[in-house]
Amino acid sequence: MNPRKNLILLLVLAIAGGAYYLYDVKWASEKKEREELRLKVLKGIDAKNLMRVSVDRKDEPYQIIRTEKGWRFVKPVDAAVDEEAMERMLKVAAGMKEERRIPKAPDSAEFGLKEPYLKLTFGIKGQDDIVLSIGDLTPTKEFRYASVKDGGVFTLPLNDYSAFNYKVFSLRDRSIVNLDTEKIQKIVVEPQGKASFTLVRKAKDSWEMTSPVQDRADSVETEGIATTLRWEKVHSFVEEDPKDLAQYGLAPAGLVVQLYTEPKGKPAEGFLLGAPKKVEEEEKGKKVQKTYYYGRRLSGGPVFMVAEKVREDLPATPFKVRRKVMVDYDVDHVTRIRLEKPEETVDIRRLEKRKWEIALTPAGGKEAKLEGRHKHIDDVMWDIKWANAVEFVDEPGGDLSKYGLDGPKAIRRATVWLKPKKDGPEERKSFILGPLRDGKAYGRVEGEKRLFAFGGKDVEKIFKTGFYLSDRRLVRVDELKDVARIEASFPGGQSVAVRRAGEEWRMEKTAGKEPDQGRIGEFLGIVDEIESQGEAAPGGEADFKNFLARISVVDAKGKTWGPITFAGKGTREHLFVQVGEDPRILKVRRDLVEKKLPAKVDDWIKKPESAS
């Protein structure tokens, strides 16, 4: 064999062996050691096995431990830890990792680690404690120097420890009552010096009042009690272990709320609301007076303060949580509405989804048929459905005269017929109302003993006249896009006409001019809202000789509405109009029409852009 070749071969093998040792043995083992160290120290904290966290710092050091009921502070107070704050801390602990290792750091004091800014001790089940010391900021102020036992010095991102560095107040549970709202089955409210009331859950979103009367409860108001106590936060803690509750207005309390997770037995938790206290605070650079209330959990614990909003959101009377909707239904199921008043009876029947017929019968008169306007009738359906009682009389007795329900002359009745299923039976819901007295009218739902009262505004919205509910529009198009052409003429013989071209308008008369798209659009927006408000009184001030404008509207099918002539004079509330050859003078709302009516040719033409 060639000795030279053998020598070269041996040299290659030696280099390869050395490389293997360096890369695959020594360096790989060192890398593995570093990774194991990193995993063990910074990424090996298992949230399930973490049992204790101690935070040593100059201000407010604290310690928290895991218990059967969750995490709690043991220093400096005995209190529960906020669940969301604890989740953040566990997430941060599990994700801690060094950013950059400082090689051969000679002196930990150089990095602020001899007397660390912050020291975190993690007590892990079945393992030695992990102690993380956090020192000075790096020159870039984006990291801090940190170290663990036998782990050298490294840099740590600020976000990797900030979750532990909040004030104790921010980390402790500040919920007024820490109870899952969905588990609450019964609520008892006891206002001092007033009747207490009890609410019982019947289904997920359904509640019933069982005392002082048996009645439906307003689910939103009832759920609001639980959600207020669960999600509103304590403003401040006053005394951790109070001995004298009377000084805070908590013995007896002004309001007691008991929350039950079982219909029977003892309350799971609750809330005592005490006396108010005015506090001067700075807000946007100004001193303002705010009111807070003392409070405490029913189970005990510290006295704290809550915002005035909490007091406002907690009901102090049974009425607030009673269901105040008297007649509930799906408006799409309504087939007929009958409104009876001493002056007239309005009987409305649905012909199609948005088409109605009105039978109007004045007192002592004959029935007249009118076409109903869906917009107004739809409003009445919703107004009946959403009218809220302002008072209940649970035991009205036999004499109804004081409620105005003793004589038929003053009584109004609203009846709604429904057909929930196409082939099913028709249902009927009805109630009566007496006269308005002191801004309210008492009434009774058919088949019920108790009385209720509606406010004057609800009564007015429900009992509209047949004339109001009829279709009184001067231009009756289903949709504004059905308007194909508009023509206007003015005193002196001037006229203008525009025709729709897709989404825009083109000028037909006044050739060579560009139409003002915006002004035409404004007028178009009110065209199908111009309604007759009735005939003008004879001898009025209508001036049709000096009229404002004469408008004709043509729809896509070629039907012409008008011409509608707007008189030159009117009243403060109304303009006067005449339609076509009809000699009657009608009133229309001035506030709706006047500002959007293009009353001269120039109003229809686009203004030239001013030179810059």
TrEMBL record:
Pfam families, sorted: DUF4340
DUF4340 domain location: 71-250, 375-532
Protein name (database record): DUF4340 domain-containing protein
Protein source organism: Tectimicrobiota bacterium
